[in-house]
Amino acid sequence: MAALYRWNFAPVFENAEVLWAGALGTLRLFAICVVLGLGFGLVVGFGRHAKAPWIYLPATAFVEFFRNTPVLVQILWFYYALPILLPFQISPLTAAALGISLNSAAFSAEIYRGGIESIDRGQAEAARALGMTAAQAMRRVVLPQALRRMLPALTNRGIEIFKMTTLASAVAYVELLQQGKLLASLNFNPIETYTVIAVVFFLCLLPLVQATYALERRLGRSDA
Amino acid sequence: MHAWNFAPVWANADLLALGLLNTLKVTGAALAFGVPLGLVLALMRLSQRRWLAWPAGAVIEVFRTTPPLVQLFWFFFALPILIKVEMTPYVAAVLTFSIQSAAFFAEVFRGGIVSVERGQWEAARALGMAPRQVMRRVVLPQAVKRMVPAFLERAIELMKTTTLVAIISYADLLFQTNEVAQKTFRPLEVFTVTALIYFAVIFAASTLVHGVERRLAASGEGLAR
After folding, report:
1. Distance from CA of A11 to the nearest CA of B (A)
2. What is the pLDDT of residues B46-102, one digit of tens each?
3. Do the beta carbons of residue A56 and residue A47 sit within 8 Å?
4. Does the residue A2 lie in any domain?
5. Which of A4, A49, B61, B205 is the most exposed place for a label (fewest CB within 10 A)?
6. Subunit contact B67:A73, Cβ cutoff 8 A
7. Structural domain tally of chain A?
8. Per the CB < 8 Å rule, is A206 touching B160?
9. Among candidates B2, B69, B194 on the partner chain, residue whose Cβ is nearest the Cβ of A167
10. How far apart, in whole angstroms, are the C-alpha atoms of residue B205 and residue B151?
């Protein structure tokens, strides 16, 4: 091996504030997408659980469409195609948040539906027999138990959303990877910059991943 | 109101078709390398020897917990400087997605292998088979059958992930879409058609997977994740 590459992380750390701005952008996008994605997913999940076809069918179409197309295509569609139908421009943040949130809503809807359907029907019936309305039975009896079972799948979704935020760099939204691209091209040091970015993501996500494993083990022990 | 006009899209159908072909090419190549590598990683991780299990675990965790786009950038922009080789977008994409999907496939393999009851292993050992023979003749054939649904789902995920190569300018379906959109000034129509192409291909694949899943469930197999 001729002339080993000499690693030099100093230029990366000298520009730490550039990466910090990116990290804030990543966190902002992540927060928006978790709230909108998991929140709207619950609504769609109920829709998939409903009996009335005018609720069930659109919810199913939504889930199938967004689960079966790549999220990057969705983001670019919202960024380049949607503004043509609208009288205003769409910012990179809006396009990325729409794409990632709707995609996550479709995936989490299936988690919610699976969780709700995993609770024995007898429980909802018993709650109804005690005089609760369907909504009360869902809120007081079914959901609290279902949510516990869904927790590992939902934290996994959260991890996926965090990783997906990097796709926002494709529409030039200021997040970690986008700032990394900037630094790498300014300082000609892609090795150190992208290594630092990868390590930052790894360190941010590792605790979440470990927590998910722990949750899975705990649930595996306490009930099936 | 926007007047939809799909004629410019049809006029460039050959470019999109080439893009779809390239998407399938990257997916196929990443699968061809990723699946065997995933099996190797799974067997290493299950090994009693620490010096085998530990590195395999590290590779799996790192590639599962970092964003695929960051990995792709690292392999495309950083690795060529480090080892002084020419890197094409295609090679970078195949390299990244092979290792990345191998990390996920490894967990599917591991789940399948672990799901085979311990008694079977002990029985096969008692019949005089070597550990390697037990794995090949008894455990893997059953495990593979259980892994099929999770495995196919991962392959579909992989195809969706390959859209990232458009960002490093490999001419996949998404990249070609962008080119056609810029050429024809019809981003709405072009991106909509592309979304529908992806939907058609991936939905067909998922429907097939669900069919296989039901068949396996009916035959009393399946359920390994």
Report:
1. 15
2. 999 999 999 999 999 999 999 999 999 999 999 998 888 889 999 999 999 999 999
3. yes
4. no
5. A4
6. no
7. 1
8. no
9. B69
10. 12
In a domain, A1, yes or no: no
Residue of A5, A181, A201 with shortest CB distance to B67: A201
B58 touching chain A per CB within 8 A: no
Q: What is the domain extent for residue A89? A: 9-220
d(CA B140, CA B143): 5
Question: Residue A56, Cβ neighbours under 10 Å: how many?
Answer: 14
Place of tokens 């395999």: B56
Instruction: Indicate which CATH number applies to the domain containing A179.
Output: 1.10.3720.10
pLDDT at A216: 85
Average pLDDT over residues A89-114: 96
Residues of chain A neighbouring B74 (CB-CB closer than 8 A)? 194-195, 198
In a domain, A3, yes or no: no
Task: Tell me which chain B residues have a C-beta less than 8 angstroms from the C-beta of A68.
Answer: 198-199, 202-203, 206
> Cβ contact (<8 Å) for B206 and A85?
no
Residues from chain B contacting residue A80 (CB–CB below 8 Å): 178, 181, 187-188, 191
Query: Which has the closest alpha carbon to B77: B167, B175, B160?
Result: B167
- Radius of gyration of chain B from its Cα atoms, rounded to whole angstroms: 21
Is the CB of residue B67 less than 8 Å away from at least one CB of chain A? yes
The residue among B191, B212, B21, B34 whose CA lies nearest residue B109 is: B34
What is the rounded CA–CA span in Å between residue A11 and residue A15?
6
Chain B, 117 to 176: residues with Cβ < 8 Å from chain A are 159-161, 163-164, 166-167, 174
Please tell me the distance from the alpha carbon of residue A151 to that of residue A20, in angstroms, as a whole number: 30
d(CA A46, CA A146): 13
Q: Is residue A104 part of a domain?
A: yes
Number of helical (H) and strand (E) elements in chain A, helices listed first = 11, 0
A-B interface: how many C-beta pairs under 8 angstroms? 115
Instruction: Select, from the ranges A93-97, A184-188, B117-121, the one with the highest average predicted confidence (pLDDT).
Output: A93-97
Using CA atoms, how far apart are residues B195 and A135, in angstroms rounded to an integer?
37
pLDDT at A74: 96
Average pLDDT of chain B? 91
Under 8 Å CB-to-CB from A211, ≥6 apart: which residues? A155
Q: Is B88 left (phi over 0), alpha (psi -120 to 50) or beta?
A: beta
